[in-house]
Design brief:
mainly alpha, 14 helices, globular
């Protein structure tokens, strides 16, 4: 198992008392990984300190404001490309099939393209497969990192680490396309309503149906579409 990918998966999970209690072990894994630069490892300290010092309810609120309210910070990767279109549904079905073919059957209420779920899967896969998949999504990680840096969020180093572990040269054009999307303040409820308002649904062939590999799906993540309403998992 790649313990660092597993640790990053946990760091991007919804905060719980159990996660808070496990943070010393998680931090030890991240801080000992020499694949990350010294600067990158030190950058995690505010995140680890937050879990040590903040109340669990504060941690939960911060997480929800960042990752649940703001579409541009969504942890559901296909949302950055397909929104809630029919194309995304087909891609997720194929992703579930890929998980099962790899002997991984997630027991979670989260959608299959949820980043912590994908990272847990990759932590169990051969290093070359994990590396290539991270490389294909590197521009998404970098876009999320930049948006979190703007918000002075202690979660930004997690995405910097993912870019570093990918060893990829981030596609500048694909990154610019993502960063061109409106980045709404999650505290601006009126603006959020406009972002989440229902858009037209167009029925047609699903080009992603039957796609057999995670890499192939992630490699298509370079041209985002207009956002559509999000259906939250229960």
């Amino acid at each position: 198992m790649d313990r660092t990918l597993k640790a990053l998966s946990l760091l991007l999970s919804y905060p719980t008392v159990e996660l808070k209690e496990a943070m010393p072990d998680i931090s030890a894994v991240v801080l000992s990984d020499k694949r990350l630069t010294t600067f990158s490892r030190r950058a995690f300290q505010p995140l680890f300190q937050a879990f040590e010092n903040r109340d669990i309810y504060d941690l939960e609120e911060i997480f929800v404001v960042l990752f649940d309210r703001s579409r541009t910070l969504s942890l559901n990767l296909f949302e950055h490309v397909h929104g809630e279109s029919r194309d995304r549904g087909g891609a997720m079905v194929s992703l579930v099939e890929t998980y099962r073919e790899g002997g991984f059957d997630p027991v979670t209420s989260e959608l299959p393209d949820h980043l912590p779920v994908l990272l847990e899967y990759l932590s169990l896969r051969p290093a070359s497969e994990a590396h290539d998949t991270l490389a294909d999504a590197a521009h998404i990680f970098e876009a999320l990192r930049e948006r979190l840096v703007r918000r002075e969020s202690y979660y930004a180093p997690v995405f910097a680490a993912l870019v570093e572990l990918s060893c990829a040269d981030v596609d500048s054009e694909a990154l610019a396309t993502l960063l061109d999307q409106p980045d709404t303040d999650p505290h601006d409820l009126e603006a959020l309503d406009q972002v989440w308002e229902e858009s037209e649904v167009i029925f047609g062939p699903d080009p992603n149906a039957g796609c057999p590999q995670v890499r192939e799906m992630l490699s298509q993540m370079d041209v985002p579409v207009n956002p559509a309403p999000r259906q939250m998992a229960e």
